[in-house]
Write a structure and sequence with these properties.
The protein has an eight-stranded mixed sheet with strand order 1-16-17-15-12-9-10-11, with helices on both faces. A five-stranded mixed sheet has the order 2-3-4-5-6, with no helix packed on it. Strands 7-8 form a two-stranded antiparallel sheet. The relative contact order is 0.14. Helix 2 (99-110) runs parallel beside helix 3. By secondary structure, it is α/β, with parallel strands linked by helices. It is built from eight helices and 17 strands.
Protein backbone atom coordinates (compact mmCIF):
# COMPACT_ATOMS: atom_id res chain seq x y z
CA UNK A 1 0.00 0.00 0.00
CA UNK A 2 1.19 3.51 -0.86
CA UNK A 3 0.48 5.56 2.27
CA UNK A 4 0.21 9.35 2.22
CA UNK A 5 1.96 9.93 5.54
CA UNK A 6 3.67 13.29 5.00
CA UNK A 7 0.68 15.57 5.55
CA UNK A 8 0.76 18.29 8.23
CA UNK A 9 -2.49 20.06 7.31
CA UNK A 10 -4.50 16.84 7.03
CA UNK A 11 -4.99 14.05 9.57
CA UNK A 12 -7.22 10.98 9.55
CA UNK A 13 -7.92 10.87 13.27
CA UNK A 14 -10.10 7.75 13.47
CA UNK A 15 -12.53 5.67 11.42
CA UNK A 16 -15.15 2.98 11.91
CA UNK A 17 -18.86 2.35 11.77
CA UNK A 18 -18.93 3.54 8.16
CA UNK A 19 -17.48 6.97 8.98
CA UNK A 20 -14.17 8.76 9.43
CA UNK A 21 -13.22 11.80 11.48
CA UNK A 22 -10.57 14.04 9.91
CA UNK A 23 -8.69 17.27 10.52
CA UNK A 24 -8.34 19.58 7.54
CA UNK A 25 -6.10 22.35 8.83
CA UNK A 26 -7.94 23.37 11.98
CA UNK A 27 -11.34 22.16 10.76
CA UNK A 28 -12.62 18.77 11.94
CA UNK A 29 -15.08 16.86 9.74
CA UNK A 30 -16.97 13.58 10.00
CA UNK A 31 -17.74 11.97 6.64
CA UNK A 32 -19.03 8.59 5.47
CA UNK A 33 -16.52 5.98 4.36
CA UNK A 34 -17.77 2.63 3.00
CA UNK A 35 -14.42 0.92 3.66
CA UNK A 36 -14.54 1.51 7.43
CA UNK A 37 -16.88 -1.39 8.22
CA UNK A 38 -15.40 -2.19 11.65
CA UNK A 39 -16.58 -0.75 14.96
CA UNK A 40 -14.54 1.82 16.88
CA UNK A 41 -15.03 3.02 20.49
CA UNK A 42 -15.23 6.66 19.26
CA UNK A 43 -13.42 7.82 22.37
CA UNK A 44 -11.66 10.67 20.57
CA UNK A 45 -13.30 13.98 21.40
CA UNK A 46 -13.33 14.96 17.70
CA UNK A 47 -16.14 12.47 17.07
CA UNK A 48 -18.42 14.29 19.48
CA UNK A 49 -18.10 17.90 18.30
CA UNK A 50 -16.88 18.13 14.73
CA UNK A 51 -17.03 21.42 12.86
CA UNK A 52 -19.04 19.73 10.10
CA UNK A 53 -20.64 16.37 9.40
CA UNK A 54 -22.02 14.79 6.25
CA UNK A 55 -25.16 12.73 6.85
CA UNK A 56 -25.91 10.10 4.24
CA UNK A 57 -29.59 9.57 3.38
CA UNK A 58 -31.09 6.08 3.28
CA UNK A 59 -32.76 7.06 -0.01
CA UNK A 60 -29.46 8.12 -1.60
CA UNK A 61 -27.37 11.26 -1.43
CA UNK A 62 -27.24 13.16 1.83
CA UNK A 63 -26.58 16.58 3.31
CA UNK A 64 -23.99 18.56 5.23
CA UNK A 65 -24.54 19.75 8.80
CA UNK A 66 -21.99 22.55 8.56
CA UNK A 67 -22.04 23.71 12.18
CA UNK A 68 -18.82 25.73 12.59
CA UNK A 69 -17.48 24.62 9.20
CA UNK A 70 -16.23 27.50 6.99
CA UNK A 71 -17.52 27.75 3.44
CA UNK A 72 -13.98 27.52 2.06
CA UNK A 73 -10.55 27.33 3.64
CA UNK A 74 -7.00 26.40 2.68
CA UNK A 75 -4.67 23.49 3.40
CA UNK A 76 -1.02 23.10 2.42
CA UNK A 77 1.09 20.16 1.28
CA UNK A 78 4.76 21.08 0.97
CA UNK A 79 4.82 24.14 -1.32
CA UNK A 80 1.31 23.44 -2.64
CA UNK A 81 -1.83 25.19 -1.38
CA UNK A 82 -5.37 23.97 -1.98
CA UNK A 83 -8.80 25.39 -1.30
CA UNK A 84 -11.28 22.96 0.25
CA UNK A 85 -14.92 23.17 1.25
CA UNK A 86 -18.26 21.35 1.38
CA UNK A 87 -19.27 19.80 -1.94
CA UNK A 88 -22.08 17.53 -3.04
CA UNK A 89 -21.99 13.92 -1.90
CA UNK A 90 -19.57 14.27 1.03
CA UNK A 91 -16.58 15.59 -0.95
CA UNK A 92 -14.28 18.49 -0.02
CA UNK A 93 -12.56 19.15 -3.36
CA UNK A 94 -9.39 17.24 -2.47
CA UNK A 95 -8.41 13.60 -2.02
CA UNK A 96 -5.50 13.64 0.47
CA UNK A 97 -4.40 10.08 -0.32
CA UNK A 98 -3.39 11.34 -3.77
CA UNK A 99 -0.39 13.04 -2.17
CA UNK A 100 1.62 9.85 -2.78
CA UNK A 101 0.96 10.23 -6.50
CA UNK A 102 1.85 13.92 -6.41
CA UNK A 103 5.17 12.94 -4.80
CA UNK A 104 5.74 10.29 -7.46
CA UNK A 105 4.98 12.66 -10.35
CA UNK A 106 7.12 15.48 -8.94
CA UNK A 107 10.10 13.18 -8.47
CA UNK A 108 9.76 11.78 -12.00
CA UNK A 109 9.56 15.28 -13.52
CA UNK A 110 12.39 16.79 -11.48
CA UNK A 111 14.75 13.89 -12.19
CA UNK A 112 13.99 13.76 -15.92
CA UNK A 113 16.65 16.33 -16.79
CA UNK A 114 14.57 17.65 -19.70
CA UNK A 115 11.32 19.54 -20.38
CA UNK A 116 8.25 17.43 -19.62
CA UNK A 117 4.75 17.82 -21.04
CA UNK A 118 1.96 16.33 -18.88
CA UNK A 119 -1.66 15.59 -19.83
CA UNK A 120 -4.00 15.40 -16.83
CA UNK A 121 -7.39 13.90 -17.79
CA UNK A 122 -10.51 13.93 -15.58
CA UNK A 123 -8.38 16.42 -13.68
CA UNK A 124 -10.98 17.60 -11.11
CA UNK A 125 -9.69 20.45 -8.88
CA UNK A 126 -6.13 20.07 -10.09
CA UNK A 127 -4.13 18.41 -7.31
CA UNK A 128 -1.92 16.57 -9.81
CA UNK A 129 -1.86 19.56 -12.17
CA UNK A 130 -0.54 21.87 -9.47
CA UNK A 131 2.01 19.28 -8.28
CA UNK A 132 3.36 18.70 -11.80
CA UNK A 133 3.49 22.42 -12.63
CA UNK A 134 5.32 23.14 -9.37
CA UNK A 135 7.91 20.53 -10.40
CA UNK A 136 8.52 22.43 -13.66
CA UNK A 137 6.30 20.60 -16.16
CA UNK A 138 4.06 22.05 -18.85
CA UNK A 139 0.58 20.74 -18.05
CA UNK A 140 -2.64 20.35 -20.02
CA UNK A 141 -5.54 20.11 -17.54
CA UNK A 142 -8.79 18.65 -18.92
CA UNK A 143 -12.14 18.23 -17.16
CA UNK A 144 -15.72 18.39 -18.42
CA UNK A 145 -16.95 20.42 -15.43
CA UNK A 146 -16.41 24.17 -15.83
CA UNK A 147 -16.67 24.74 -12.07
CA UNK A 148 -13.95 22.19 -11.33
CA UNK A 149 -11.58 23.77 -13.83
CA UNK A 150 -12.21 27.17 -12.24
CA UNK A 151 -11.46 25.67 -8.80
CA UNK A 152 -8.24 24.13 -10.16
CA UNK A 153 -7.14 27.52 -11.48
CA UNK A 154 -7.69 28.97 -8.01
CA UNK A 155 -5.52 26.20 -6.53
CA UNK A 156 -2.77 27.00 -9.02
CA UNK A 157 -2.95 30.69 -8.09
CA UNK A 158 -2.82 29.88 -4.36
CA UNK A 159 0.32 27.83 -5.02
CA UNK A 160 2.01 30.74 -6.82
CA UNK A 161 1.52 29.19 -10.26
CA UNK A 162 -0.67 31.79 -11.95
CA UNK A 163 1.89 32.24 -14.74
CA UNK A 164 2.90 28.57 -14.98
CA UNK A 165 2.56 26.91 -18.42
CA UNK A 166 -0.83 25.27 -17.78
CA UNK A 167 -3.55 24.89 -20.43
CA UNK A 168 -7.01 24.88 -18.84
CA UNK A 169 -9.47 22.89 -20.98
CA UNK A 170 -13.19 22.41 -20.29
CA UNK A 171 -14.10 19.45 -22.48
CA UNK A 172 -15.19 15.83 -22.59
CA UNK A 173 -11.97 13.87 -22.09
CA UNK A 174 -12.76 11.29 -24.77
CA UNK A 175 -13.43 13.91 -27.42
CA UNK A 176 -10.37 15.88 -26.38
CA UNK A 177 -8.12 12.81 -26.71
CA UNK A 178 -9.51 12.08 -30.18
CA UNK A 179 -8.81 15.65 -31.30
CA UNK A 180 -5.28 15.59 -29.90
CA UNK A 181 -4.57 12.38 -31.82
CA UNK A 182 -5.70 14.06 -35.04
CA UNK A 183 -3.62 17.15 -34.26
CA UNK A 184 -0.52 15.03 -33.69
CA UNK A 185 0.05 16.42 -30.19
CA UNK A 186 2.15 14.29 -27.82
CA UNK A 187 2.84 14.20 -24.09
CA UNK A 188 5.69 12.80 -22.00
CA UNK A 189 3.40 11.82 -19.12
CA UNK A 190 -0.32 11.11 -18.81
CA UNK A 191 -2.36 11.13 -15.60
CA UNK A 192 -6.00 10.15 -15.43
CA UNK A 193 -8.60 9.72 -12.70
CA UNK A 194 -11.64 8.43 -14.61
CA UNK A 195 -15.04 8.19 -12.88
CA UNK A 196 -16.77 4.91 -12.13
CA UNK A 197 -19.86 6.03 -13.99
CA UNK A 198 -20.91 9.07 -15.95
CA UNK A 199 -22.57 10.49 -19.05
CA UNK A 200 -20.93 12.45 -21.83
CA UNK A 201 -22.27 15.73 -23.26
CA UNK A 202 -24.31 13.85 -25.87
CA UNK A 203 -25.67 11.29 -23.41
CA UNK A 204 -22.91 8.71 -23.93
CA UNK A 205 -22.69 6.31 -20.99
CA UNK A 206 -19.31 5.89 -19.33
CA UNK A 207 -18.97 2.75 -17.21
CA UNK A 208 -15.39 2.23 -16.11
CA UNK A 209 -15.30 -1.54 -16.55
CA UNK A 210 -16.53 -1.24 -20.15
CA UNK A 211 -15.07 2.12 -21.21
CA UNK A 212 -11.59 2.26 -19.70
CA UNK A 213 -9.79 -0.16 -22.02
CA UNK A 214 -10.89 1.44 -25.34
CA UNK A 215 -10.23 4.89 -23.87
CA UNK A 216 -6.71 3.84 -22.85
CA UNK A 217 -6.07 2.40 -26.30
CA UNK A 218 -6.60 5.90 -27.69
CA UNK A 219 -4.85 7.80 -24.91
CA UNK A 220 -1.67 5.72 -25.28
CA UNK A 221 -1.34 7.14 -28.82
CA UNK A 222 -0.66 10.54 -27.24
CA UNK A 223 2.57 9.42 -25.59
CA UNK A 224 5.74 10.97 -26.98
CA UNK A 225 8.69 9.01 -28.35
CA UNK A 226 10.36 9.34 -24.95
CA UNK A 227 7.54 8.97 -22.44
CA UNK A 228 8.23 9.30 -18.75
CA UNK A 229 5.23 7.80 -16.95
CA UNK A 230 1.54 6.92 -17.22
CA UNK A 231 -0.59 7.05 -14.06
CA UNK A 232 -4.16 5.77 -13.62
CA UNK A 233 -6.22 6.30 -10.47
CA UNK A 234 -9.43 4.45 -9.66
CA UNK A 235 -12.01 4.60 -6.89
CA UNK A 236 -14.26 1.96 -8.45
CA UNK A 237 -15.16 -0.65 -5.83
CA UNK A 238 -14.15 -4.14 -6.84
CA UNK A 239 -11.55 -3.09 -9.43
CA UNK A 240 -8.26 -4.49 -8.15
CA UNK A 241 -5.07 -2.40 -8.39
CA UNK A 242 -3.51 -5.24 -10.40
CA UNK A 243 -6.10 -4.64 -13.14
CA UNK A 244 -4.72 -1.14 -13.65
CA UNK A 245 -1.19 -2.53 -13.80
CA UNK A 246 -2.28 -5.21 -16.25
CA UNK A 247 -3.87 -2.62 -18.55
CA UNK A 248 -0.68 -0.59 -18.64
CA UNK A 249 1.43 -3.71 -19.20
CA UNK A 250 -0.76 -4.66 -22.16
CA UNK A 251 -1.01 -1.22 -23.75
CA UNK A 252 2.15 0.72 -22.86
CA UNK A 253 4.99 -1.70 -22.07
CA UNK A 254 5.07 -3.43 -25.50
CA UNK A 255 5.49 -0.04 -27.21
CA UNK A 256 7.81 1.73 -24.80
CA UNK A 257 9.46 -0.85 -22.55
CA UNK A 258 9.71 0.18 -18.94
CA UNK A 259 7.80 -1.49 -16.12
CA UNK A 260 4.56 -1.20 -14.17
CA UNK A 261 3.66 -1.09 -10.52
CA UNK A 262 0.29 -0.99 -8.81
CA UNK A 263 -1.14 -0.74 -5.34
CA UNK A 264 -3.77 0.57 -2.99
CA UNK A 265 -3.64 4.16 -1.80
CA UNK A 266 -3.97 4.64 1.94
CA UNK A 267 -4.08 7.17 4.76
CA UNK A 268 -2.56 6.54 8.21
CA UNK A 269 -5.08 6.46 11.07
CA UNK A 270 -3.86 8.26 14.18
CA UNK A 271 -6.07 6.37 16.66
CA UNK A 272 -4.97 2.88 15.61
CA UNK A 273 -1.68 3.20 13.74
CA UNK A 274 -3.25 1.31 10.83
CA UNK A 275 -3.97 2.58 7.32
CA UNK A 276 -7.36 3.11 5.68
CA UNK A 277 -7.50 1.97 2.02
CA UNK A 278 -8.67 4.81 -0.22
CA UNK A 279 -8.57 3.63 -3.82
CA UNK A 280 -6.12 2.15 -6.30
CA UNK A 281 -3.43 3.31 -8.68
CA UNK A 282 -1.40 1.84 -11.52
CA UNK A 283 1.83 3.36 -12.80
CA UNK A 284 3.85 2.70 -15.92
CA UNK A 285 7.42 3.98 -15.54
CA UNK A 286 9.99 4.35 -18.29
CA UNK A 287 13.44 2.85 -18.04
CA UNK A 288 16.09 5.41 -17.17
CA UNK A 289 17.85 6.73 -20.24
Amino acid sequence: MWIADRWKDYELIDCGGGEKVERWGKTVLVRPDPQAIWNTPRERREWKRPDGRYHRSSSGGGHWDKGRMPERWQVRYDELTFQVGAMNFKHTGLFPEQAVNWDFAREMIRSAGRPVRVLNLFAYTGGATVACAAAGAQVCHVDAAKGMVAWARENAALSGLTDAPIRWIVDDCGKFVDREIRRGHRYDAIIMDPPSYGRGPSGEVWKLEDSLYPFLERAVQLLSDRPLFFLINSYTTGLAPSVLGYLLDVLVTPRHGGHTECGELGLPVTATGLALPCGSAGRWIADRR
